[in-house]
Amino acid sequence: MEAGSSGNGDGAAPTALAKWGSDVSRVFQYYLDRSTPHTPGRWLGTLAIAMVYTLRVYLLQGFYIVTYGLGIYLINLLIGFLSPMVDPEMEVLGDGPSLPTRGSDEFKPFMRRLPEFKFWYAITKAFLVAFVMTFFSAFDVPVFWPILLCYWMVLFFLTMKRQILHMIKYKYIPFNVGKQKYTGKKARPGTD
């Protein structure tokens, strides 16, 4: 028998577990990659998960701290989704690309700090983690939920106000309104 070998086959267990973990990770990534072009379906699935979570919290009449934490995290993700990759306030003039600030500036597409797919994935994971947390009574801290709701709404309002003012100041719109189509020259009324 070799030195360091226990003889009962324990060396194979970590290898088999690592292989199984690798296989599960590969399959998960495969389906995640396949879901990428199906944006409406992904968001409908996340909406269904959110509704199940909301129904569970409503029926249990608890886990308000978990829901509040989830809401704060969702605000943080939303800010990342609405923010440009390079913040014009932090950028020193002449160092790399910037958003156009005048009509004569060159068009540069809006690049998000948090891309849509990662935004969706993070929201879905957050709802799943919060859902799992509702199965553990340690996370059901008794609180007066209307105060948490009011505080979250004030926080959301102030955060969105700051973000909208930032959008107005630097003249960017973080949403695609579709591809612009050339319609040709429009004839002025009274000319043929």
From TrEMBL:
Keywords: Membrane, Transmembrane, Transmembrane helix
Membrane topology value: Multi-pass membrane protein
Protein name, UniProt field: Protein RER1
GO CC, any one term: endoplasmic reticulum
Organism the protein comes from: Spirodela intermedia
Domain of life: Eukaryota
Job description of the protein: Involved in the retrieval of endoplasmic reticulum membrane proteins from the early Golgi compartment.
InterPro entries: Rer1
